[in-house]
Amino acid sequence: MTQAVQTYAYLRPSAVLDGAAGRSLALATSGGSTPAGEVANPRFFAGFLTAPAPAAAALLAVADVAAARYYQPLLRASLDPVVTANGDRLRFESFSGCCGVYARLDVLADGLDGDEIGHGTTNVDVNNPLRESLSLIGSTDPLHLAVGPDALEVTTLDGPVVEKKVPLPDRWLRGFAETQVIGAGLDLRAELPAAEAVRFLRSLPRGGRTTVAWVVPAGRTLRPTTRPVPGAVCLPGPERLVALQRVLRHAVALRVYGPPNATAPTASAWEVVLPGMRLTLTLSPDAARGFSGEGGVLTALAAEGSAADAELVAVLLAWEPRIDPAELAEQAGISLARVRAALGRLGTSGQIGYDTAEAAYFHRRLPYDSERAEARNPRLTAARALVAAGAVRQEGELATVTVDDHVQRVRRGADGAHTCTCLWWAKYRGGRGPCKHVLAVGLARGEETR
């Protein structure tokens, strides 16, 4: 299988520059999408960061995740963070090389003081000299921020002077799709004030053997528990929160997000509230497995008509910071369920993200397509092959799927959820999305499966 290569072409390296007007953080952008189309080096913002030191530390935390592998850490990653301008904020995103940690820094309107914030998505250069400069930013240093080159730089520099080519793992692409599905299933479970947040995060291990821990809200703090009691939140691989250590001295609060009534290891999101911004790390259910295999998008990809619905919904998106599915349903003239399936499909091409703090989807645009994501999902590919081979036989609420020399039985319950007799379902109980047999039954029936 040929692995994709991501090429970053920058006009100059990102740097912290000293000038007559003070220090400036100049973030170089690579090719990206804007309302005007594809642009080689888009410019999204020029102005001041209202909290320079927290912003510098948070950007470093996002870069830390992009450069880290928490599983098999001897291998180093090198993918530049993604920045999206949503008109009222800037979002910086990255994945760890092992695809098990997703980081996002939301610099909100209160954290920016300058000209209008643009719309679009691109990559930003984060190099070692920049990291060293950011680590020296003090709390009293005014810091100008420029995301992208100005017109003079574009016209006077003769083409890209910095180019990086790095392998782009398929699992990293699928991670963008899976995290928006997982994020939509997480609710706010606890909020800790600054002092308790610092105490709790500093008590976590920074290395050693990976474990799955559980914590339960107890007043204004979190108490460890050995099992998933009611109200508990899973903390899978607590050492993977190490990037948050950079921002602890600036923390205003810590918010914890998890699914309700979890009884097995699950993903969770850990958000540090900073002045004018939020830094969130989302952890996969196990440090040894990334987000790419969670299977949350399979139902949307398999839904009948979701491809056409995705094309319809896509034209209604405009890098909105908050997407209301009900409003989209009204604008598109389709049902809310079809809109949600369309958003799931758009997520496979990186067009949709999810903000747990605001419980809302947001729009970005990455240079990937959903057909590529679908082709790289072996369960869906296998399910389509089963349907094409006539392997599915339906008998009311029970269906049989013939695979080689054996038969699997899929049953639909009163709540619409499916069970299967295969080993995959016995192991995960639907916790990693539907198995290929359930997907095949749904495809044969022309309905969504779960």
TrEMBL record:
Keywords carried by this UniProt record: Metal-binding, Zinc, Zinc-finger
Source organism superkingdom: Bacteria
PROSITE patterns in UniProt: ZF_SWIM
Keyword Zinc-finger: yes
Domain SWIM-type: 399-446
A Pfam family annotated for this UniProt entry: SWIM
Keyword check for Metal-binding: yes
Protein name per Swiss-Prot or TrEMBL: SWIM-type domain-containing protein
Organism whose genome encodes this protein: Kitasatospora paracochleata
